[in-house]
Amino acid sequence: MRNVQIKSKERVSNHGEVFTNEKEVKAMCDLVNNETQRIDSRFLEPACGDGNFLNEILIRKLIIVKNKYKKSISDYEKMSLLAVSSLYGIDLLRDNIINCINRLYKTWENEYLKISKSNISNEIKDSIKFILRKNIICGNALTFNTIDENGKETNEPIIFSEWSFIIGSNLQRSDYIFENLLNANNNLFNQHNQSTLLKKYITHYRKIKDYE
């Protein structure tokens, strides 16, 4: 976890970017420790930076997954994917988004290897990376719009996917416009209004990247 709180004065001036140090991150996560112990409890960081809070939450969730499912690599794989899928982030700066995605993936990969003691299949790697790309978005959390590769705000809305296991190894993905979820007074998919649903599909959790 980083302890450097600014990358440059320009980024602070232009974007108000200040990173929270490790001690504060841990203390703040301790305030919601019961939720971080729930594998499927969802967290949204609307100014996620390169993932200080999200990574700490993932570490805590993966400890629970390990304690409960370490005797079965197939169960561990599914539950660790569910832990990853519960984390959402938005940031104005694309380099932060890239770093956040890579950081969360590396945390998942390192913990998986401690359990499996062998190579990770490309299918599960691809599924984890796909979920992270869908959940960690370069955008403006105030206007609810995405930001393009040139750092310009677009008219395209931020869309988040809800992930949930429904039957065995089948994972359901449901897409919603972020702004609609908030306008419906929902707590990120909890008791969501089906009228805001964009699309839904179900497939094996190792095949989700086949359905863009």
Helix and strand run: HHHEHHEHHEEEEEHE
Classification by helices and strands: alpha/beta
Strand line-up across the major sheet: 1-2-3-4-5
Number of strands: 8
Beginning-to-end CA distance, first to last residue? 32 Å
| Cα shape | globular
Radius of gyration: 17 Å
Largest sheet: 5 strands, mixed
Overall mean pLDDT: 88
| β-sheet strand percentage | 15-25%
**Into which percent range does the helicity of residues fall?**
40-55%
Number of helices: 8
Question: Low-confidence segments, ≥5 residues, pLDDT <50?
Answer: 11-17
Description:
The protein has 212 residues and is an alpha/beta fold. Helix content is 44%, strand content 22%. It is built from eight helices and eight strands, in the order H-H-H-E-H-H-E-H-H-E-E-E-E-E-H-E. It has helices spanning 9-15, 22-30, 33-36, 52-69, 73-85, 94-116, 122-135, 178-183, and strands at residues 43-45, 87-91, 136-140, 145-147, 153-157, 159-167, 170-177, 197-204. The strands form two sheets. The protein has a five-stranded mixed beta sheet with strand order 1-2-3-4-5. The protein has a three-stranded antiparallel beta sheet with strand order 6-7-8. The longest helix has 23 residues, at 94-116. The protein is globular, with a radius of gyration of 17 Å.
